[in-house]
Design goal:
The chain is built from six helices and three strands. It has 163 residues and is mainly α. The chain has a domain of 103 residues: Orthogonal Bundle (Arc Repressor Mutant, subunit A), CATH 1.10.10.
């Protein structure tokens, strides 16, 4: 007996408008932020990794923790680290506590690059996004995207556990 495939729950016009507005804005925003970081020879993923490391104690994180914090697959993070090591922004160090583990460590050059790029990046975020929102908009967006992010993080971690 053939299994009957369920009909998708199609988006209604209101849902479609919300989704398209979101996705188009995110795409344009990511393009603009990438362009604004290019004078610093940084990509947005590079910048995000540097920020995560800058916020960590000793400017270092276990590679698995960095992957989880950035919702980056281990293979994608490994590739990103190779690029960033070549630029001199990060280095990988063996973990003495766990010989299988590695630390991702921000170098002084990485710190200086982040410090130089951060004001331009912040100004870009402010001009392109924050200044167009009321305080209530900002609070609503933070609440909404915290909820969505939590759900996506749970899915990501469950998928990583299966691997």
């Amino acid at each position: 007996m053939a299994i009957k495939k369920l009909e998708p729950k199609w988006l209604n016009p209101r849902e479609m408008k919300a989704w398209r507005s979101y996705i188009q804005t995110v795409r344009r925003m990511m393009e603009a932020l990438e362009a604004d970081l290019s004078p610093h020879e940084l990509s947005l993923p590079d910048y995000e990794v540097l920020v995560l490391l800058s916020e960590a104690e000793g400017r270092r994180l276990r590679m698995t923790e960095l992957a989880e914090a950035g919702l980056i697959s281990k293979s994608r993070l490994s590739h990103r680290m190779k690029v960033m090591e070549k630029a001199g922004w990060v280095k990988r160090e063996a973990c003495k506590e766990d010989r299988r583990g590695l630390w991702a460590v921000m170098t002084d050059r990485g710190w200086k690059t982040l410090v130089k790029a951060a004001p331009d990046h912040t100004e870009s975020i402010r001009n392109r996004f924050i200044d167009h929102l009321t305080v209530k908009d900002q609070e609503d967006m933070a609440r909404i995207f915290d909820r969505v992010h939590s759900q996506l993080r749970e899915q990501y971690l469950a998928e990583q556990d299966k691997k």
